[in-house]
């Protein structure tokens, strides 16, 4: 009986030692997993911080882009207004100088290759346009693009534009 008890005690001690070793291995595994969890949380915080920074930068870029676009649209609006002023001024000056010269008679058929406004020859690089309002033949400089209607001479454009305002 004593021997059986000694054998059982030895077996119990061996089993306790194995359980202890398994417990130590599991504790080491738990410690390793906790370290991984801490690193994962730190990585998550870094990624969240980087995401917030990227979102902030994107919002700043978008605000800058919007301000730049608004500035460019204002510049375009100003340039269009200035262009109309210059066209009016050019036409007014042209009308003033038109009275100084003797009035030109209607172009004879041989002058069909000349601009009716500035008398420039139509060649390869100076294109001829038909005014959609008075049907005169004008060059690019003496005409205005009026969109889908085509082109018209500056005089007709000014008359039409002054009537519209």
From TrEMBL:
<keyword id="KW-0862">Zinc</keyword>
<dbReference type="InterPro" id="IPR017455">
    <property type="entry name" value="Znf_FYVE-rel"/>
</dbReference>
<dbReference type="GO" id="GO:0008270">
    <property type="term" value="F:zinc ion binding"/>
</dbReference>
<keyword id="KW-0863">Zinc-finger</keyword>
<dbReference type="InterPro" id="IPR011011">
    <property type="entry name" value="Znf_FYVE_PHD"/>
</dbReference>
<keyword id="KW-0479">Metal-binding</keyword>
<dbReference type="InterPro" id="IPR059036">
    <property type="entry name" value="RUFY4_dom"/>
</dbReference>
<feature type="domain" description="FYVE-type">
    <location>
        <begin position="109"/>
        <end position="161"/>
    </location>
</feature>
<protein>
    <submittedName>
        <fullName>RUFY4 protein</fullName>
    </submittedName>
</protein>
<dbReference type="InterPro" id="IPR013083">
    <property type="entry name" value="Znf_RING/FYVE/PHD"/>
</dbReference>
<dbReference type="Pfam" id="PF25366">
    <property type="entry name" value="RUFY4"/>
</dbReference>
């Amino acid at each position: 009986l004593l021997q059986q008890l000694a054998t059982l005690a030895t077996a119990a001690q061996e089993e306790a030692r194995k359980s202890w070793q398994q417990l130590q291995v599991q504790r080491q595994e738990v410690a390793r997993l906790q370290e991984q969890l801490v690193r994962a949380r730190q990585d998550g915080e870094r990624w969240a911080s980087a995401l917030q920074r990227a979102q902030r930068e994107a919002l700043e870029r978008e605000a800058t882009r919007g301000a730049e676009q608004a500035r460019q649209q204002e510049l375009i609006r100003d340039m269009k207004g200035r262009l109309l002023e210059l066209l009016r001024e050019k036409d007014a000056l042209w009308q003033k100088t038109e009275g100084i010269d003797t009035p030109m008679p209607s172009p004879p058929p041989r002058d069909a290759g000349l601009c009716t406004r500035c008398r420039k020859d139509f060649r390869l690089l100076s294109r001829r346009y038909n005014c959609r309002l008075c049907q005169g033949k004008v060059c690019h400089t003496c005409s205005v693009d009026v969109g889908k209607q085509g082109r018209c001479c500056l005089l007709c454009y000014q008359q039409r534009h002054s009537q519209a305002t």
